[in-house]
Amino acid sequence: MNTADVITAAVLFGPAALIGPPLMLAAHRGTRHSKAVLAMLADERAKRAAAPADQDGPPPDGGQPTPVPDTEPLAQVIPLRRAA
């Protein structure tokens, strides 16, 4: 192996040897974080499945739901017709 081969190998593999381990550790840390987030979301999904659904139907006593009051217009309506 001559000097040119050693220099070429150092140029090609040197940066990967220096940057590789920190990047691998960061990727592993991100994977652990993702697993924790997925576990939390699964727990929340289980809680929602166990909770009763929202009741949008009539009141429990069997009566009619409270009607929504009629609203008044916010401003006077101006007719926009062309003058003949």
Describe the structure.
The protein is mostly helical and 84 residues long. It has a domain at 25-51. The chain is 57% helix and 0% strand. The chain contains one helix and no strands. It has one helix spanning 3-50. The longest helix is centred in the N-terminal third of the chain and has 48 residues, at 3-50. The termini are far apart. 0% of the residues are buried. The mean pLDDT is 78.
Keywords, separated by commas or semicolons:
elongated, 84 residues, mainly alpha
Describe the protein's topology.
Elements: H1 3-50
Poorly predicted regions: none
Described by the principal axes of the CA atoms, the overall outline is elongated
Number of strands: 0
The profile of the biggest β sheet is:
none
| Elements, N to C (H/E) | H
Total DSSP helices:
1
Strand content: under 5%
Tell me the quaternary state.
single chain
Mean pLDDT: 78
Q: What share of the residues lie within helices?
A: 55-70%
What's the N-to-C terminus distance?
100 Å
SS class: mainly alpha
- C-alpha Rg (nearest Å): 34 Å
Brief rundown of the structure:
This protein is mostly helical. The chain has one helix at residues 3-50.
